[in-house]
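Reading group handout, session on sequence-to-structure problems. Before we discuss, look at one worked example. The prompt was deliberately terse, the way you'd type it at a terminal:

> structure ABC transporter permease

The input record follows.
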Amino acid sequence: MSIIAIQLKQVLRNRRFFLFTILLPGIWYVFMIQVASTSLPATGNFQLALLLLALLMGILGNSIVTFSKRICSNKDFYILQSHISHYSL
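And the output record:
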């Protein structure tokens, strides 16, 4: 199994990935469309802008989750923290 396949499998098992990348942006998009449809005309450009914002939220959420997981699982991070922190690990 290649390294990319292993990493992809690891990311897809992560519950936070689905929460911050798929569920939260999807719920936010539907909520914003519902709110905007009551006050503003829901034109195609406005819906497209909301969709792009939801997609960017998903990308940022995925980046944060992946980055934090890699930092926490990295042994060197703990070694670095033990050298620069006032607290002992």
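Points for discussion. First: The chain has a mean pLDDT of 79. Second: Helices lie at 3-13, 15-39, 44-73, 75-84.
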